[in-house]
Amino acid sequence: YQLEDESAHLDEMPLMMSEEGFENDESDYHTLPRARITRRKRGLEWFVCGGWKFLCTSCCDWLINICQRKRELKARTVWLGHPEKCEEKHPRNSIKNQKYNVFTFIPGVLYEQFKFFLNLYFLVVSCSQFVPALKIGYLYTYWAPLGFVLAVTIMREAIDEFRRFQRDKEVNSQLYSKLTIRGKVQVKSSDIQVGDLIIVEKNQRIPSDMVFLRTSEKAGSCFIRTDQLDGETDWKLKVAVSCTQRLPALGDLFSISAYVYAQKPQLDIHSFEGTFTREDCDPPVHESLSIENTLWASTIVASGTVIGVVIYTGKETRSVMNTSNPKNKVGLLDLELNQLTKALFGALVALSVVMVTLQGFAGPWYRNLFRFLLLLSYIIPISLRVNLDMGKAAYGWMIMKDESIPGTVVRTSTIPEELGRLVYLLTDKTGTLTQNEMVFKRLHLGTVSYGADTMDEIQSHLRNPYTQAQPPAGGHAGSATPPRKAQSAAPKVRRSVSSRVHEAVRAIALCHNVTPVYEPRAGAPAEAEDAEADQDFSDGNRTYQAASPDEVALVQWTESVGLTLVSRDLASMQLRSPSGQLLTFSVLQTFPFTSESKRMGIIVRDESTAEITFYMKGADVAMSPIVQYNDWLEEECGNMAREGLRTLVVAKRALTEEQYQDFESRYSQAKLSIHDRALKVAAVVESLEREMELLCLTGVEDQLQADVRPTLEMLRNAGIKIWMLTGDKLETATCIAKSSHLVSRTQDIHIFRPVTNRGEAHLELNAFRRKHDCALVISGDSLEVCLKFYEHELVDLACQCPAVVCCRCSPTQKARIVKLLQQHTGRRTCAIGDGGNDVSMIQMADCGIGIEGKEGRQAALAADFSIAQFRHVGRLLMVHGRSSYKRSAALGQFVMHRGLIISTMQAVFSSVFYFASVPLYQGFLMVGYATLYTMFPVFSLVLDQDVKPEMAMLYPELYKDLTKGRSLSFKTFLVWVLVSVYQGGILMYGALLLFESEFVHVVAISFTALILTELLMVALTVRTWHWLMVVAEVLSLGCYVASLAFLNEYF
C-alpha cells in the first residue's frame, strides 16, 4: 500500500526544470507525463492533423498481430540428445535478413514508391490518359518517364534483396556435426533443433544458443570470440559442465539420462540462469549453470573442439533478439520536396478552378476541369525524381572516388544529402574512437611511482629476491621476503621498496584471467611433456588470451620486467622468474569481474611454501572501502584519470588454511541455492574482502585512433552534438571521453548515480538539473529506469548537455536512444560503429556509418556508408554532405522552375484563346523540353560548388547553416515560383504582342525563347563553373538547332 501511495505522491510532485520551477506553472515541462496527456487535440481537429494515419496504422498492426500471433516465451526443460521430448514447438534455426519474399516483393516496392505524393500523382495522371475524353497527348509522354523511374527502382531493390538472400543462404547451409546414438551425422545449420548435441570445431561459428557440455581441451574450458555479439574483441573463457566433462567418452552422453533447465529466452547477453540435472545416478547430480557455461550463437570457437546441447534456436537466440529489422531510410530533403509538391498540387487545382470559373462553367465543366488539371500537370515535374535519383548516384560516385578518404563505400545511394543535415552523432567507443590496444603506462606504490622511462628500475628490484636465492631451493624463490643474506647487504629503505615492488608485480602476474596460448610448431613435443615443452617454448611463440585487453596489457608488462606467465589451466598457474626458475601456484577460487562488483579476485596457494593468498584488483570506487586506510589512493587515481589512463587498484590478504576451508564450505553452499543465488554468493565473498593490504595502483592507456581529437573538435565546431554509446565499463568510458577531448578539460562531468526505482530517478534528475554546462555519464540500467518514468524530462536535459556518455549499453538500448532522439528533437541523427553490436543503432539512425575495423565487417555491411577510419567522418560530412545537400536543393528547385514556367505559358495561352483546354506544345516538344533540350545543363548543377573543399574543412562553422535547412525552404521555393510565373508570363505575352503578324509561328517563337531562357537561367544559377557545364550548355543548344530541321510539322 505504501508503495502505491509513494508513486501517487510523486505524480503530483513536479520535476523542477530550473530553480524557479515551482513558481512558474504554465510550462508543461514542470508536470509529469500523466498531466501532459490531458491536453491532446480532440475530435475532427485530431483526425485531420494526422489522426487518420494513426487509425490506419493501428488497424494494420492489429491485423498483422492476428495473422502472426506472437508466442509467449517460456522457460524450458531440454533432454540431452532427445529433441523429440520437447513439450513445445520451437522456431527453425534459420537466419533471415531479407525485407521481402517472392509474393511481397512487387507490392512492397510499389508501396514504398507510391507512398510518396509525387509518384502517386503521376500514376493517377498517367492512368487518366486511358480515358478517351481526357486524352491530351500521346501515351508515351506520360508512361515513359514513370516506367523508367519504376524500372530503375525495382532493379535496384531486386539486386539488394538477392544479395541478402545469398548471404543468408550461405550461413543457413553451413554444415555441423550432430551427435546421435548411431554416431556423428552432418546437419545443416537451419535443421538444428532444441535438444540436439552439436559438435563445433575450432574457428567455426556457433549455430545456435547452447549449453557447453564437453571440450577436447584437458582443462575443461575453451575460449570463444564474441566480437559479432557484443563488440568486444577480447576472448571469453567458457567452462564445460563438470558432470559431462568427466565422462570417459563422447558416446557416454547418450548412456546417461540428463536434462538442462533453461530460463525463458531474453535480450540480456551477459546473464543466464539454469540448472543441469543427471537423474540416473544416486543421489541425482545437480549443477548450477551460469553465463560461463553458455555458448551464444554468432560467436566463434577460438580453441579446441566443443560439444553443446542446443537450448534456443532461430528467433529466440540472443543475437537475433538483439538485432532490429532494417527500415527503409528516406532523406529529409526528399520529405521536404514531397511537401513542396503538395503545395504545387494545391496551386494546380486552384489554377484549373480559376480557368473553369472564367469559362463560366459552360458545358461539361467537370470534364474541362480535368483536362485543365492534365494540361497544367507539368507544374509538378516527373523528371524531378529521375534527376534527383541520378544526382544521388553521382554524389555516391564522387564520394567513392575521393582520394582523401580512400576505402569509403556508399551502400545506400538514396540518402547522401542526409550527411549535410546532421545534428546528433552517436558513436561507439571500442574500435571506433579507440584502437582497442592497451599499453601499460604507470605503476604507483604510494611512496614511489614508476613510468615508462623508469621500468628498468623495476627489473633490477625484481632480480634481487630471485637471483640471491639459490635456484634449486624453490622454498625461498616464491616467498615474498628475500633470503637473509640479501637483507644484511642491502640498506633498509632500499629493501622495503624492493620487496614492495616484488609483491606488487607478483600480484599483477597472478591476479587475472589470462591464459597463455602457444601456436603449435612443426615437430613440437607431444602434450605429455607439457611442462618441459613450456620451458623451451620461445617467447615469440606465446600469445595471451583474456576477457579484457587491460588484463593482457598487465600480463605482457610483467613479462617485460621479468616475471612471465608460462602456463595456466583451471587449477594451476606457472610463472617464470627473471633467473629462469618455474614457480607453481594452485588456483583455489576465482571471482570473475562483473559490472556490479567492478572487481575480480583469485585465491592461490604457493606450491613451494603452501601459503594461501587472496589477491584482488578492481576499480578505485569498488576497492577503496575494502583496503586498509591510506592517504594517497584517491588523489593518485584522480591524477591518472586526468591523463586518460584506466586505473586498477591491486590488493592482497593472506589466509590461513582454516580460514580458507571455512570460506570454501560456505561458498559452495551459496552457489547451489536457486533463489537469490547472486546475492548469497556475493555476501560470502564479501566476508573475505575486509582490511586488505593495498599493494599498488596501475595505469593502462587505451590508444586512440589516428586524428580522433581534431575530428571530434571539428564536429563540435560544426554544431554537431556527440554522444558516445558503449558497452564498456563506466570508468573506461569516462577515461576515453576525457582523453579523446569529447569532454573538454574545463567541463565538469556529472556521473548519474545508479537508480532502481521512480523515487531515486526523480531525486537524481533534480540533482542533475542544477548542474550547468556539464557532460552527462549514465549507465544503461539507470537509463532504462529513467526512460520508464521520466522519458521526456531526461531526453530534454540530455539534449542540453555538450556531450553525453552512455556506458554498459546493450545493442537494443543503443537503437532505442537513437529513436528517442529522433522522436523528441525531430533532428537528424547519425550513428557510427564497427561491431556486430552496433548494427541495430546504425540501422535505426537516419544515416548509418560503419567502420571496417578489427571487429569484422558486420557493421560496415549493414551501414549506409562504410569508411576505413573514424577521421574520414570529418570530410564525409563537411565536404560531401555539404555539397550533396546544396546541389540537390538547387537541382530540385530548378526542375520545379522548369515545370512551372511551361505551365504558366500554357495558362496564358489558354486564357488568351477563350479558355480552351488545348495543349500549346504537342507530344515530342513536351518530352524533348524535359529531356534532350534542358536536361544536361540542369543536371550539370550536380557539379556546382559554393565553397572549396579546403575552406569547408577549415571553417566547420559553415556546416551549422545547413542544419537550419535554408537552401530549400518555403521561402526559397516561393522566390522560384515568382520568378517562373514572371518569366512564363513575359515569354508568352511577348510572343503574342511582338509577333502579332507572325501569329502562325507563335509556337516556334515562344518555344525557342523558352529554351534560351532556361539555358541562361542555369548559367546564372551556377556558382563555380566546371568544363562539363559549358559542354552541356553548348550541346543542348546544338541539339535544339539541329532538331528544328526534323520538327517542321510542330512549328
TrEMBL record:
It catalyses: ATP + H2O + phospholipidSide 1 = ADP + phosphate + phospholipidSide 2. Its EC number is 7.6.2.1. PROSITE patterns: ATPASE_E1_E2. It is a multi-pass membrane protein. It is an enzyme of class 7 (translocase). Belongs to the cation transport ATPase (P-type) (TC 3.A.3) family. Type IV subfamily. NCBIfam families: ATPase-Plipid, ATPase_P-type. This is Phospholipid-transporting ATPase. The gene is ATP9B.
